[in-house]
């Protein structure tokens, strides 16, 4: 029998759904400004700034994920949103010649952004029933795509009419305002927070004692299943970041498309990602309800869907390289972006879900942090290293390498998807 949602939990989920896109907005706004900024700074310098943010984001997200198992995740979220907004506002005021200051501010922005998702992931794991976890995760993560779909158009409009500084400044101010509103809402919700009642104190302590005996952080680091998951996340998230960030520059510089057509492609990736995230969460939850009674592993079911999505993205990535020209239909380009977004964001969502489900509750944040760290290393690679390769060769070459990498990882994941997480094995044996 499904557990009913209590009103404080409903309000909490709504606040998370509103706040999480704001962390994404600060990142996607940079993507929307990319072509304009690159004309003044050239690709490598812009890629250096992006890699600074991605590196800081990776480190911060890893630390925040581990801390989410030990602290209140909501406070971390609010502080990150506020600091990130302030860093973004300051970024818009620095001269373009001060590259070190710009890198430093965007590094701080990445640190602040890293506090966002681990907090939300921990809250969902604590409050969602197993049959709703995938769906709720997908709905919350899809809120990022809402910001990602709107940001390229909004930022392009502001850039063309008021300059890139106004665009960055606007996203920073919005983040600061919502951080203040979130802090106010957090204070109001403290009295409604559901905690262990005094009558259940002994039960909670016993549960914590049992959890501590089910494994440690080091067990996660050497878990073959999590290593496989992390390697897959590195490739898929790196591919998504490269396409979302540099795809429009590829269309503008190498295929002769307009700035707005490039923005439409970037927006279509996020729009497709919205569909992909929600679809995989709902579909895998339904498949688990149907087939787990027949002996199928929930993790195996989710990873099978992820493999199917990843393999489906390969021919579309190939089509993006070989069929798009200066005369190609904008509808076709937008369609490619939409489908690529759906087929890449789907596995990203699934890997995030599986990383949380593959560990005991007291290590779920740490497990997700490890997988996310690998994914964000992929995002770092999509920054300066990809820019360097594109400068030496072309963006078409970069996208060809991405196409090959996804194909290889899909095959490897297909043959290894029957692995069982080490800690879940021990738990089942006990």
UniProtKB/TrEMBL annotation:
Keywords: Membrane, Transmembrane, Transmembrane helix. One of its GO terms (molecular function) is glucose 6-phosphate:phosphate antiporter activity. Pfam families: MFS_1 (PF07690). Residues 1-422 form the Major facilitator superfamily (MFS) profile domain. GO terms for cellular component: endoplasmic reticulum membrane. It is found in: Endomembrane system. Belongs to the major facilitator superfamily. Organophosphate:Pi antiporter (OPA) (TC 2.A.1.4) family. This is Major facilitator superfamily (MFS) profile domain-containing protein. The chain crosses the membrane at residues 76-108, 136-160, 167-190, 225-251, 332-356, 368-391, 397-416. GO terms for biological process: phosphate ion transmembrane transport. PANTHER family: GLUCOSE-6-PHOSPHATE EXCHANGER SLC37A4. It is a multi-pass membrane protein. Gene3D superfamilies: MFS general substrate transporter like domains. It comes from the Eukaryota.
